Model the fold of this input.
Amino acid sequence: MIGTDIREAITDLMADFCHFLDDDRLEEWLDFFTEDCMYKVLSRENEASDLPLELLSCRNKNMLRDRILSLREANIYNIHYDKHILGAVRILEEKNGDYRVQANYSLYQTNQDGVSELFSVGTYRDLVVFDGGMPMFREKIAVVDTFGIPRLLSTPI
Amino acid sequence: MRNEPQLTWPTSDLSRIPYAVYCDPTIYEEEQDRIFRGPTWNYLALDAELPKKGDFLSTKVGETPVLVCRDNDNSLHAFVNRCMHRGMLLCRERQGNSPNFICPYHQWTYDLKGQLRAVPFPKGVNGEGGLPKDFDRKNIHLHELKIESYKGVIFGTFSNKSEPLLDYLGPEVIYEIDRLFHKPVHILGYQRQRIFGNWKLYNDNVRDPNHGGLLHMFHATFGLYRLSQKGGAKLDERGRHNITWNALGTDDEKTTEEGYEGTKNVYNAKFNLKDMSMLQNRTEHDDDVTLVILSVFPNVVFQQISNSLCTRQIRTDSNNRMELYWTYFGYADDDEDMTRHRLDQANLVGPGGLISMEDGEAVELVQTAVQREQDKHATVEIGGKGKIKTQKSLVTEVPIRGFYSYYCELMGFPVGSDATAK
Done:
């Protein structure tokens, strides 16, 4: 049995992760990750064929920091709002105090004319660890069903 | 049929491009015949995707679904992915292995050479129904494309008027294919990008080295590619293909700052990454060339950006929609560390690429802006007007004019000051 405290902490983390992205609090969003984190966006098509290529991959927190810096300073992308709708959070397994967590998401993007479109649907497959009582992502992996990326993949999923 | 009054090519050097060419659905329809089914060689796939007998994959030539397979005698075939019976998409899977192709609709079965082998209930039931007496399945064969492959790159053509592949590519392109495919490759995976713009706008984009150092600020900022570096654009004899290349670290601070003076944000010398491993170039060739974007008319781009290698196939959906299909690869003898490095560098390009994510957006914004300006023209003068030839600088867009010179020839569009669309 996984305790209610742990379950709530993990569920809150999953929800905060999405809301910080949607609120464009990308620099604070980085705090949800451990230094040795792995953040990846995988195409379901590649995964099904055992092909290693990612759509986006950061193998440590510095690479993730660079991604955000680049978004802020260098990249030009479609001006939009993100809105994540998170499905039920499933805690699959506990091992040495680390938790395998899974949840489906859908991510809508709304353009400057106020038109919303489904941008991505997929599944998070995460590893949550506790550091000083605080839950954090050591692994955050979005496996996207929508691997035909509309336009471009700029803000994180 | 054509949207005639709007389509004019006022200059014979193709330095003016009518916006109607991106917007008019009747032109798009004609392109499917004259370009994609015309005397051109279209990129289909890489040999490494079909290593075994019976391996097949689905691809596209323009908008036409095409099936590529490896036969039991190891030869490659390409067919229109359509059953000869009632037009059903014969093969629905993206990739797989099979001894034959069975149409899901009525189970007509074809072998790997495209020959019809079996039809269920040929004689009907109890003497009733079935195929007519003069039906001869030996006469039924999938619509086959002619295939030629070079260094493991498979091209196909619909036309029997196409010149041999190597003549079509020409020595400049062959040199680059030899260089990129100098040893066997293995596939790392795919990326797909839906682009809401005309397929030619993407061809323009990759024939425009000038935008690389201006639109793609990531590129410029971290010194992977700056317009002040040694580089250029090589064209084949006919100007229809293009090779944009550059060499890392061949500019100095002064040239760079002078060149980018007055531009906002593009070049910022104080901007640093925390993890530089992604930008490391591991030398794989005897030359100092770190970037090659080779565009082959009409549907493919071959990429080397440092150690990130891929093909980008242009698949059309309509006059204002296309898919860009990215196939990433490494070399078969890469060790685990090199593979990881190539995967890291895959972050630079593709739909989520730190460098290239802008292209999908740029193409769409042009499409949006020109939709109601079809009688107007784009200006293509950077790098000079007149003769279309190889460029020794990256500040050029001459290769775009090369693309349209061949395009207009195939489409039968008259060009020049006296040219009026007929």
